[in-house]
Write a structure and sequence with these properties.
Shape: globular
Radius of gyration: 23 Å
Largest sheet: 9 strands, mixed
Low-confidence stretches: 1-8
Helix content: 25-40%
Number of strands: 28
Strand content: 25-35%
Mean pLDDT: 90
Number of helices: 15
Strand order of the largest sheet: 13-14-15-16-17-23-22-19-18
Structural class: alpha/beta
């Protein structure tokens, strides 16, 4: 099946996201840019609304190069806030409302946020605050230019657009600053895979703290299409979510495989017509054939098209794509496809050399979508973003070491084999298992802990924790540990089950035997 392309003129003409948005808005001012519940906002209105909020931010002291925390539920006001921050020449730093206070405190301090737009929490250290209500009040503002001391304000290609925090090996998240040029490179490469048009309607489903949302927002805004915000009440069940997709005429959705399984069950059980969808794009987790077969049996693969995407925050959302065909449904491997045009790739073995075709190694990535590194983490940046001299040309090339193990197929596509470390992707979130283990060990009665991912049924992957309690602490329960973890980690990092063991099994060299721990879980499930 060949993937068609579309014109990318607006993207090619612009070097930053603000200019791109203004270009698209000027070309189709009365088209619907955004719909949330019963509120429909045109490109003209969204442009003027976000200009007005940008002027408020400038009045509050926000300046080009600043970082502004964004703490809002996804909605019309949040999209306006993102555009307003960018129009100030600043970068937005999403802070999820569900974060524990300790995580939010760290993100605000580490990012050096000069202001916050949305809802502050008790004890929030940022004092310059523009609340959601103030954003809403600007909805009908008259068009006026965004200026600072009489000078027009606009970002440059190399300015930071956003900083997203991912799980970190030290127990603290690490900030990834992504530039306007990085996002433009992603959007430039998309037409090599997709035929998005101005008639599409994209669903904003994911948290603004998850970089899937960057794709969900700028996919439509770069093509003059419409962004449909999923109402908060519709996120409660897949049936409600599916109804929004059908009733609002959504044509493009982005899904983690786990969420797609629930959506499939709802669609098949309800006998729903999903032919209005044009694309289902996967990301955030490994996609395997058993996850797709129920959908393919019920609805086929022609409409909507199913596309498996692989990507990393450090490489701006997506790196490779693979359209799902009948052959995918019969294979055991998870094929993630070819890299987008701007990427240079290597598959590197333990010895630092490229492996032979078909052998497994770590995927290294270079190109226009690479972030500069980690905020305030020079040593980690040097480790994860090595500069390598090309033996043939003598050129210095900066790569990102993904930590993902892949093998290259004879036709240039990649097959995903797994992680090289203890980092996993689950429901779209990148999670460092050691972060959770550290948090569990902080309980006074816990000596040691091992967190793994267990598949309870095909596609139903969950975090589980085996732990060893201190001698004499017979009363330590799973409920106590759940309550303990709630104060330290966001919900997506909470283990679903806990198993108390008398001791953790070890290998001959003294390391924890994770395979033996996994067997203990199987034995526990068999007994229960």
């Amino acid at each position: 099946m060949l993937l068609q392309s579309m014109t990318s003129d607006p993207i090619a003409r612009n070097s930053d996201l603000v200019s791109l948005f203004r270009d698209v808005a000027a070309a189709a001012p009365e088209r619907a840019a955004l719909s949330a519940e019963d509120d429909r906002v045109t490109y003209r209105r969204l442009d003027a609304w976000s200009d007005a909020v940008a002027r408020i931010l400038l009045t509050e002291g926000v300046r080009p190069g600043d970082r502004v925390a964004l703490r809002m539920t996804p909605g019309a006001e949040a999209i306006v806030a993102i555009l307003a921050i960018l129009k100030c020449g600043a970068a937005y730093v999403p802070v999820d409302l569900r974060n524990p206070v300790s995580r939010s405190d760290f993100i605000l301090a580490d990012s050096g946020a000069s202001a916050l737009i949305g809802e502050p929490y008790e004890g929030c250290a940022v004092t310059r605050v523009v609340r959601t209500a103030a954003v809403a009040e600007c909805r009908d503002a008259r068009p006026e230019p965004v200026t600072d001391a009489g000078e027009a304000v606009r970002p440059g290609a190399d300015d930071t657009a956003y900083v997203i925090y991912t799980s970190g090996t030290t127990g603290n998240p690490k900030g990834v600053p992504v530039r306007h040029a990085n996002v433009l490179a992603l959007l430039t490469g998309a037409p090599s895979v997709f035929d998005f048009t101005e008639d599409d309607r994209w669903l904003l489903f994911h948290s603004l703290s998850f970089d899937f949302s960057v794709w969900e927002i700028w996919g439509p805004f770069s093509t003059g299409a419409e962004l449909v915000v999923l109402p908060h009440w519709a996120a409660r069940t897949p049936e409600q979510y599916l109804s929004v997709i059908i009733d609002r005429g959504v044509t493009v959705i982005n899904q983690t495989p786990t969420a797609f399984l629930a959506l499939t069950e709802a669609a098949v059980r309800g006998g729903r017509d999903v032919s209005g969808l044009r694309y289902v794009i996967f990301g955030g987790e490994k996609l395997t054939a058993p996850m797709l077969r129920p959908w393919a049996k019920a609805f086929g693969l022609d409409r909507p098209r199913l596309v498996n995407g692989y990507g990393i925050t450090e490489t701006t959302v997506f790196t490779t794509f693979e359209e799902i065909g009948e052959a995918y449904l019969t294979q055991d491997t998870s094929v993630i496809g070819r890299a987008l045009p701007s990427f240079r790739t290597r598959v590197v073995g333990d010895d630092g050399r490229d492996v032979a075709l078909g052998e497994t190694g770590e995927l290294w990535l270079a190109g226009a979508q690479l972030a500069e590194g980690y905020l305030r983490r020079p040593e980690l940046t040097a480790e994860k973003f090595p500069v390598v001299t090309d033996g043939g040309t003598g050129e210095s090339v900066r790569y990102y070491r993904s930590g993902d193990l892949v093998s290259e197929l004879p036709d240039g596509r990649f097959a995903y084999e797994g992680r090289a470390d203890l980092q996993v992707k689950l429901r779209g979130y990148r999670i460092e298992l050691s972060d959770i283990e550290t948090a569990v060990r902080r309980h006074d009665d816990v000596v040691d802990a091992v967190v793994t991912v267990r598949e309870f049924k095909p596609g139903d992957l969950r975090l589980v924790c085996a732990y060893v309690a201190r001698e004499g602490s017979a009363t330590t329960t799973a409920r106590e540990l759940r309550d303990h973890i709630k104060t330290l980690l966001p919900a997506y990092m909470h283990p679903a089950r806990y198993l108390r063991l008398p001791g953790l099994p070890r290998t001959v060299n003294g390391k924890v035997d994770r395979a033996a721990v996994a067997r203990s879980w199987e034995e526990e499930v068999a007994r229960s």
